[in-house]
TrEMBL record, chain A:
Keyword Acyltransferase: yes
Originating organism: Paraconexibacter antarcticus
Protein family (similarity comment): Belongs to the thiolase-like superfamily. Beta-ketoacyl-ACP synthases family.
Protein name, as recorded: Beta-ketoacyl-ACP synthase II
Keyword check for Electron transport: no
Keywords tagged on the record: Acyltransferase, Transferase
SUPFAM superfamilies, per the entry: Thiolase-like
InterPro entries the record matches: Beta-ketoacyl_synthase, Ketoacyl_synth_AS, Ketoacyl_synth_C, Ketoacyl_synth_N, PKS_Beta-ketoAc_synthase_dom, Thiolase-like
EC numbers, comma separated: 2.3.1.179
Upper classification of the organism: Bacteria, Bacillati, Actinomycetota, Thermoleophilia, Solirubrobacterales
UniProt xrefs under PROSITE patterns: KS3_1 (PS00606), KS3_2 (PS52004)
Domain of life the protein comes from: Bacteria
Residue stretches making up the Ketosynthase family 3 (KS3) domain: 1-397
GO molecular function: 3-oxoacyl-[acyl-carrier-protein] synthase activity
From TrEMBL, chain B:
Protein name: Phosphopantetheine-binding protein
Alphabetized Pfam families for the sequence: PP-binding
Domain Carrier: 4-80
Record organism: Paraconexibacter antarcticus
Classification via InterPro entries: ACP-like_sf, PP-bd_ACP
Source superkingdom: Bacteria
Length: 398, 80
């Protein structure tokens, strides 16, 4: 089986435009949540797109394109061009919702007696991000969206891993994107009592009362190791394993025992060939909802055993809120950079862990990651979505 | 509905194409649509604008032979 390496990462998040902004600001303990929500406030469409391009893309597609542009530039594709023939390259971009603002804007127009424009469908469709990225970079191989709610970004990266391993493609842009900060989604998640009424994201804390909705995108350049090495690409890390399961239990609530989430972790570790004790860090899903953080803690203990207590576990959502279908992709980007720098960023806002939540959640400040001599730093990144979708990636620094 | 004159329709069409992202100083009756990066989705939007403004319905079969900005104007005026 071919190895799959990461040669570029890109992100647009509430902590700024750029993967480094995310990594450095989160590590420094900065939080991008403002008034109970986490928009990409530093993103300006006019910085990146012509008027025509802006009109032809929903915000979620724009965020995906900006993240992809950063990742592609880092991978050296801008100077060197696409490293393989176009039909050996593709894009797999997950989203939880797709172009909901486009959909609702057109519906509003219809109700008011106006027209529904010809751009309504191509902008709102959930695969628009993948399609736009493929068009931008002339990727003629596999290109599609992935939908598994808040696990979508992670599933997209996992599916991309398989596609390269099995020879469907040699290079893929993979990730997730979401731009669903809209009164309807606020009301809808609010009706589920999933959102924090206090507007505070503090995963694993006793006072946690729900997630804070955010928006953003994360994209990784994944390449077959042989392709990347042959062209002398700078390799950031290795995508070593992937596991995907379903709770088959409840539309929104996770299994309390985290049994199938644990199974996804175990499958991902086995796929990577890693013993559970050979993991140095966990980038947790850590949503700040009462149910997730308890079930996830149970899953980590179940899958990693005693080792779960011995490694740092932190949640990116403490710094940027919950990016829904983009969350797993952005967290994969953050994990790659954390592994590179051997730093475990903090779970911001965590002061008093909830009952039974007794892992090392890195409260307060970032900490150096302890890595055994003789090998690179390794992590798992977990994502869980409404519908009971569990997806886990194993990542390793170069 | 606005009265259909060549001048009025030309103004409507040019304004629409600019709103779609065409460069204002490039849009003349003689400009070819490919030069302006105007494609079938833009023409579908333009059809809605023309329908709203003049009550003229342009179908995709009407626009299939269009090459220039002036061609669009001619099709609309001819259908009035």
């Amino acid at each position: 089986m071919r190895d799959v390496v990461i040669t570029g990462v890109g992100a647009v998040t509430p902590l700024g435009v750029g993967a480094r902004a995310l990594h450095e600001r989160w590590t420094a303990g900065e939080c991008g949540i403002v008034d109970g929500e986490a928009p990409c406030a530093e993103y300006e469409a006019t910085d990146h797109f012509s008027r025509k391009e802006s009109r032809r893309s929903d915000r979620f597609t724009q965020l995906a394109l900006v993240a992809a542009a950063e990742a592609v530039a880092e991978a050296g594709w801008l100077e060197d061009g696409l490293p393989v023939a176009p039909d050996r390259a593709g894009s797999i971009i997950g989203t939880g919702i797709g172009g909901v603002s486009t959909l609702l804007g057109n519906y509003k127009s219809l109700l008011e007696g106006g027209q529904v424009g010809p751009l309504a469908v191509p902008l709102m469709m959930g695969n628009a991000g993948a399609a736009a990225v493929a068009m931008k970079y002339d990727l003629e191989g596999p290109a599609f969206g992935v939908m598994s709610a808040c696990a979508a970004g992670t599933n997209a990266i996992g599916v991309a891993l398989r596609a390269i391993q099995h020879g469907e493609a040699d290079v893929l842009l993979a990730g997730g994107s979401e731009a669903a900060l809209h009164p309807l989604t606020r009301a809808a998640f609010g009706a589920l009592e999933a959102l924090s009424e206090l507007g505070i994201s503090r995963p694993f804390d006793a006072r946690r009362d729900g997630f804070v909705m955010g928006e953003g995108a994360g994209v990784l350049v994944l390449e077959a190791g042989d392709v990347a090495r042959a062209r002398g690409a700078r390799i950031l890390g290795t995508l070593s394993g992937y596991g995907s399961t379903c709770d088959a239990h409840h539309l929104t609530a996770p299994r309390e025992d985290g049994r199938r989430a644990a199974a996804a972790i175990t499958i991902a570790l086995a796929d990577a060939g890693f013993d559970p004790t050979a993991i140095d860090y966990v980038n947790a899903h850590g949503t700040s909802t009462p149910l997730n953080d308890a079930a996830e803690t149970a899953a980590l203990k179940s899958a990693l055993g005693q080792h779960a207590y011995e490694i740092p576990v932190s949640s990116t959502k403490s710094a940027i809120g919950h990016l829904l279908g983009a969350a797993g992709a952005v967290e994969a980007v953050a994990t790659v950079l954390a592994l590179r720098d051997r730093v475990a960023p903090p779970t911001i806002g965590l002061e008093e862990p909830g009952a039974g939540l007794d892992l090392d959640y890195v409260p307060g400040q970032a900490r150096a990651m302890s890595v055994p001599d003789g090998r690179s730093a390794r992590a798992i990144s977990t994502s869980f979505g409404f519908g009971g979708h569990n997806a886990v990636l194993c990542l390793e620094a170069a | 509905m606005s009265t259909i004159t060549n001048e009025a329709v030309e103004k409507t069409v040019i304004e629409a194409l600019i709103s779609f992202g065409a460069e204002p100083d490039e849009v003349t009756p003689e400009t070819e649509l490919t030069t302006l990066d105007i494609d079938s989705l833009d023409l579908a939007e333009l059809s809605q604008i023309v329908d709203d403004e003049y009550g003229v319905t342009m179908k995709s079969s009407d626009v299939s032979k269009i090459k220039t900005v002036g061609d669009i104007v001619a099709v609309i005026v001819a259908k009035a």
